[in-house]
Write a structure and sequence with these properties.
CATH superfamily of the largest domain: Nucleotide-binding domain of ferredoxin-NADP reductase (FNR) module
Helix content: 10-25%
Structural class: alpha/beta
Largest sheet: 6 strands, antiparallel
Distance between the termini: 25 Å
CATH topology of the largest domain: Rossmann fold
Strand order of the largest sheet: 4-3-6-1-2-5
Shape: globular
Number of strands: 11
Length: 241
Amino acid sequence: MAEKPRFYDATITKIVSLSSTVKHFVLEYPKEADANFIAGQFMMVHLEKDGKPHKKPYSIASSPKLVKDKNQLELSIKLVDGGYVSTWFFGLKEGDKIHTSLPYGFFTVREPWTENIIFVGTGTGVAPLRGMIHKLYEQNCDKQIWLIFGNRHENEILYLDEWRALEKAHKNFHFIPTVSRPKEWKGETAYVQEIVKKTFAGKTEGLDFYGCGLVPMCQQLKSALIEMNIPKDKIHFEQFT
């Protein structure tokens, strides 16, 4: 049974530009607020549009530990051309308050961990994956963990330094970025589903897949995994529209 959402105002305490079209927002909640959630879940942002209530879901890009330690959570938001809420977000400044509700969703890591874990994301689809990965390492997960992360351009790889640092800190973390429209990029250039097929060819057991991104990518990835004979109960998705 889904947990009943809780409604709170939050203060934007930090805004960081991650690329020309993506910003990272830190939201802080009052001390008395219960902003707990499970890594991978999403929240709702509530505002008005044309004088009527309007809401928009955003995946939480941080681990629940940030709530426990600082009453904070993080969002990674892409400015969508003509997007009402993303345009509104990009007009906000540090110190502004927004109205939110949480938690929502069932896109969470299955426990106990019995398989190695493969995360596949594109663009801001990496947001819930980031929260999940940080949570796993806070729990000292000893499984092999992959992040296959696709973007169009090399200057759009969100949290790149963070992934590189995680790779250095943990021998069981494997980061594979891929860029579909490279300029000077020397790494992978195939779509994420092709990277998955190449990396895990012939390995159909002991793997648990979590994919997040726009609907076409998720559907193509799902088809690739089924083609690889990955059991359907080992394929988990959160699709963005």
